[in-house]
Amino acid sequence: MSNAVAGHSAPAHAAHGGQGGNTGTGSGLVVVDTNELPWTGFPGHEDSALFKLLRVDPVTHGSTILLRYKTGEGLTFKGIPDHKHWGAVELLTLSGSWYYQGEPVVKAGGYVYEPAGAVHKAINPDWADTFIISYGPIQLFNLDGSPGEVIDGMSYYEAAKKNNAVGHLPALG
Description:
Elements: E1 40-41, E2 49-56, E3 63-69, E4 83-85, E5 89-95, E6 97-100, E7 106-107, E8 111-114, E9 119-120, E10 122-123, E11 128-134, E12 138-141, E13 147-151, H1 153-162
Antiparallel strand pairs: 1-2, 2-3, 3-11, 4-9, 4-12, 5-8, 5-11, 6-7, 6-10, 12-13
């Protein structure tokens, strides 16, 4: 397969390199072949949610991830619990469908913007794949409504690191 675009050849540093296809040049550019990244279990919910970490913002602890999850419904719900976003979130549904309680169903191709402070729980009986840009951490809530674990870009990074899935990212923490 050629690296040429409209008669231009790609510079030598744009050749495939490293785990996940990192072709960064030291300029901060990160190019990732997500097909090469392994799925990593979402911290605390490994049986119902998997992610591929694409980027971590070391200042805000926001992240960019691919998230694959299945929550079940009603008594069979086993997904990520109610949670609050400390930063805004942008989400694009790639496959499947899901919804927040009391909100419309989001199908493949659906885009969602969630403002900072949003509290909700996503529900989907079948697997869905989403692309998520999170501008800050999320606060999970325990079943009794009390604050639970905080998940941020560094949480994703540490979990992905244990899964050998951060070779495309700069070393953090």
